[in-house]
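Example 472, ligand alpha-D-glucopyranose.
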Amino acid sequence: MAVTATSVSQTSNSTAAPTLDAEHPLSSVKGESKQEHDARMAWWREAKFGMFIHWGVYSVPAGYYHGKPVERAGEWIMNNAKIPVAEYQAFAKEFNPVCFDSAKFVAAAKSAGMKYIVITSKHHDGFAMFDTKASDWSIVRATPYGKDPLKEIAEECRKQGIKLGFYYSQAQDWNNGGSAAHGGHWDKAQDRNMDDYLDKIAIPQIKELLTNYGSGTPAVIWWDTPVEMNPQRSERIQRVVQSLRPGVIQNDRLNDGKEARLSRKGLYPGDTTTPEQFVPPQGFPGRDWETCMTMNGTWGFKKEDANWKSSETLIRNLCDIASKGGNYLLNVGPDSLGNIPEESLKRLSEIGNWMKVNGEAIYGSGPTPFDGLMGSFSPTERDKEGHPKFIPEWKWRATSKPGRIYLMVFDWPKDGAFQIPKTSRKFVSARLLADPTVKLSLLENDDGSGTILKGLPERAPDSSASVIVLEE
Ligand code: GLC
């Protein structure tokens, strides 16, 4: 009997995000004051830019099954091709990442100016990329490699000063019998009682991940696809988290359904909202949020996915996200030998070159002080949720810090002048981050409609985004 995904219906008329205080519906979530919350989020808000790593046994088939390409994301291949459990588990015997080098993984993140890493410890296929006692379906017990890469990465992150988070798919598990994905199980070997799965696999593994990787690790838990995760089951997991690592940052995907993502009452809102593969038009004012995005068309490695975004696009996405107050979690998908694809490394290095000169505009920045959407809503096109599709305009963005505003200009002016929109903030000087020797002048518009900045060089300092600092 196929297990069907029965999401718990949440009736909620409140749209306000719940406060994490005593009346929080999940009693295990201790209320914290705004000061405590800000202190806990401080490193994450400073970091702004992280590396997502999707790595698992799905990198062996790498998007192909029985010689045929399988559509959609590489890490979903078992589900998308309805591969029987026994057949999928045979891939583990070919998974021997002899090229894996934790120092190279961490160096790749640092080369881009990334300040944290979130790596898949267990994805929806249930394959544990770590040494777990709860199941034999792991890189230590089921592969010729036989070692725990997360332990090596955790040690390397501590050495290189990068925070490490663990992605954990807490509900779906297509081999150990976790909840069904959309459409239900396809192999009788998967059928299992969900609470028994939580008891025997998920909760023991979450405890292992929270306690076996050293102090401060994980700094983030990245839950995903909360199929059949009702508040009772979330409560059980939260009790474990709050007792073993109360300061860990969590996203909004522990609970079931859309409500969790909107952090509505009655569900554990987590600390961060997680728009995936898109940048919300105005961010989520007053809420920490993070756009996660692939560099090509897949999270997990696919040998033929060449749908790479340009470094210019990735840099402008980073500027766009930071200008709306968000973080950018940009993905790499290592192959079955443990290599990060060259195309990814190239982009990481190019982003890093930009960050070396312009990172001051991103790290620890706040959202733009200027009003107005940098784009418009299409009168005809709809987004995934049926709302009018937002079409961004790629002229410029801005971020802010006390006493400073950073203009990140994509479309460099031809006449050496830039019109700064009206704002209550008054500027006394301006300079190019790339070349502070260039003399720039500021002149208030007579009609009070803003300020004109003059003296810009003919050539943009950077073809992707050039940063002008406005000092107050
Ligand atoms: C979706 C996909 C999952 C991926 C995640 C990253 O939830 O199901 O495969 O890990 O996005 O945000």
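Summary: Residues 1-23, 259-266 have pLDDT under 50 and may be disordered.
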